[in-house]
Amino acid sequence: MEIGQKVKVIHLRDRVSGNVADKLGKEGIIKSFKMTDGSGIGAIVEFADKTTTWFFGEELKPVE
What we know:
Distance between the termini: 12 Å
CATH class: Mainly Beta
Shape: globular
Largest sheet: 5 strands, antiparallel
Helix content: under 10%
Number of helices: 1
C-alpha cells in the first residue's frame, strides 16, 4: 500500500468506537502512515466525508 492509494476497510481487528465501526465496508484514500504498537505500521485513511482515522494494514484491502 502507498500514499494516495484507494482502500476499503474489510474488517476491524479490535473493538472500536461507533464512528470508526461505521467505516467498515467504506472506501477511502491513504493519506499517511504511522507506527502502531511497535510491531507494525498503520495507515491513516481519509474518507469521502473528510474524516480520517487509522487502521492496521490487515484491516484494509486495495481497491482497483
